[in-house]
Design a protein that fits this description.
The complex is a heterodimer of chains A (223) and B (221). By secondary structure, chain A is an all-alpha fold. Chain A has one domain. Chain A has ten helices and two strands, in the order αααααααβαβαα. The radius of gyration of chain A is 19 Å and the shape is globular. In chain A, 40% of the residues are buried. Chain B folds into two domains: 1-57; 59-209, no CATH class. Chain B contains two helices and five strands; from the N terminus they run αβββββα. The relative contact order of chain B is 0.11. Chain B has helices at residues 3-54, 185-208; strands at residues 71-74, 86-93, 96-106, 114-121, 126-133. The termini of chain B are far apart. Classes of the chains: A mainly alpha (223), B alpha+beta (221). The complex binds flavin mononucleotide (FMN).
Chain lengths: 223, 221
Amino acid sequence: MTDNSPILQKLRSGLWDDNPGLVQLLGLCPLLAVTTTFVNGLGLGIATLFVVTCSNILVSATRTWIRSEIRIPMYVLIIASLVTCIELIFKAYVPALDRTLGIFIPLIVTNCAIVARAEIFASRNPIGASMLDGLAMGAGFAALLCAIGAFRELIGRGTIMANLDMFFGGDPQTGLVIVDGGFLLAILPPGAFFSLALAVAGKNYLDQRRKKAPKPGERIHAR
Amino acid sequence: MTAGQDKQIAPKVWASGLILGTLAAICTALVAFTYSVTVARIVANEQAYLEQSLAPLLAGIAYTNNLSESTLVIPPPHALPGNGPAIVYRVYAGDEPVAALFVVTARDGFSGPIKLLIGIDTSMSITSVRILEHQETPGLGDLIESSKSDWLTQLDKTSLQSPSRDSWSIKRDGGVFDQLTGASITPRAVIKAVKATLLYFEKHRDSVFAVIPPPQDAATE
Ligand SMILES: Cc1cc2nc3c(=O)[nH]c(=O)nc-3n(C[C@H](O)[C@H](O)[C@H](O)COP(=O)(O)O)c2cc1C
């Protein structure tokens, strides 16, 4: 924690300490809506990761032009173009996934986690750092989407990683079938809220436990 | 506003406009480039998906035409289910019509419209039915999807003669078709839409096939 390189620190911040979904609670609409299966979470996660990284790069590259009165239209222009690009790319290379994610790909435009990174970070920092910030935040959001997707799929359908063929091609895959059918509530909208609540609570629990009882080894090394 | 203020603001506004314009040009170029790289694959994917989703409805039927080129769009108002235009893919063996595939929308689903693909051969019986789009509840209404249960298969090979016209409804409404446990709204909507489509085809068969689609190789000649 103290002697990590800036890159690791940034990754840690995106994946855990300032996770856009778990801590900042941004971008909840897509997070709650598409995470019915692992592969859906992965698909939207990768799309969001791409958009936030490229948007950070573009915003940072044009940051000297940014004037406060037109900055929001600039972000919107950049983000909307990137989302259109990723939608075209999905339609061309992973059409099955594009059909299941449907409207949630275009709706990445409205993911406020992306505008937040543009405003808070990319508009004030050089390109390299902004790219890293986008990668870290995007990875944190994608990881959360995958985790919630996997959890809801396991409880709601009784499978693990079904339909990965939507991403990687090949024959339809049933994934690992644990039980036939599942507890339906998990894949309905309330299940999304329960799952997110569990994830947030779990993170806070882990953080608190670590604060209260630092590992014995840690103290010795810190001196 | 005084003339002095105008003078101060004008350059600022122009600069902002210039910045936004330049950025818009860059972004448009980016999208245009991506489009030009992907468009061929997207069109190919869409055609492949169409053929792939239509093929199961034509199992056992010999046909020669390209389905995406024999499309007929019936503008509203029409007697088919749905308020929007209905799409018909006409299927021919040579010049002889052998079947028609209807894309129609049942508007009385449990949570929104249900888009159906209904195959009817020229002897007026259903070849098969597929659900294209719906928002019914997972685990209840979505069992109409053929990947989730075999509820839909009971419609295969049916016609307005078997079962008879009056029994074209779910059992709960006095008909012959099974409903789904705890969900009869969705099945009711589907059966009603299929029946309406059969009635339409019975009445308008000749006009559906009236315009012979251009032969496949017309463009290349
Ligand atoms: C949360 C919820 C979702 C439902 N989803 C559907 C559905 O998708 N399709 C459907 O036909 N009925 C659905 N129902 C049930 C209908 O409200 C209605 O009770 C049922 O269709 C009547 O079926 P029955 O006549 O066989 O009892 C749902 C009910 C609830 C509470």
